[in-house]
Design goal:
heterodimer; A: about 140 residues; mainly alpha; B: mainly alpha; about 0% strand
Amino acid sequence: MHIDMSSFTPWPALAGGGLIGLGAALLLLLDGRTAGVSGITGGIIHPARDDLGWRLAFVAGLILAPVCYAAFAVLPELRIDAGYGTLIAAGLLVGLGTRYASGCTSGHGVCGIARWSPRSLAATAAFMGAGFATVFLLRHVLAS
Amino acid sequence: MKRLAPVLGALAAGLVFGWGLIVSRMFSPAKVLGFLDLAGAWDPSLALVMAGAIPVAAIGFALAGRRGRTLLGDPVKIPTSRVIDGRLILGSLAFGVGWGLAGFCPGPAWVAAGTLAPRALVFLAAMLVGMGLFECLEHLRTSVASAAATSDALQRQDA
């Protein structure tokens, strides 16, 4: 393993992480809800009574974030290398998987670990492990 | 929509959260894949994003947990399940494979879709279909389970 110092961005990573944590804390202190994006999205697809407004508003905030950001500064590069077939397969897996797991990188990875939930630690270990293994296979086994 | 304040609160939370995904560059799949590629030219940035996010979120959970109510007076709903089962692990593994394939997870997918990049919109659409499929499968599972319970009860009556 060698660290790619040219692409490593420690300060933006820490600062952006702090903002992600702040967003999660705001949702908790203002709405009493965990900032788990897969769960919030799932609840829009299958809404319970009187439970839709805050979900739509949170997702609207996510969508509007790049628009607001671009009003103040130049957006960092958005690079998506995967082809359309891969994107569709990946989207289906992420949609199904996160709903079965009741959480994703935000709900388990950030919020779950922040409350030291053993369930979220197990989920995070599983999806990170699968992510590492998938990229290893794609880039170092199948590609060579 | 009875009250506006919680909805505005969620909008602000989503904006700050999305802003964080942009500042940290994590809305870009190439950046995430750089972290997942341990054997290549490894970019540890995502680990620092988690290191920045978790302590701040933990303060939020500690405050909300102690208060029991939100600043607007509503009850705080924190997940209570402690079950580690096949659903959790297999679901997470499937998610991880999809994450490794494209470099997108749900939060960044919404943020990147906000730029109207076609590839981000295609991923988001497929993710929503996957979540819809989950709802269908769950509906099927619960109706099969209730049908089985009814036929069980009938058989017991016969005997």
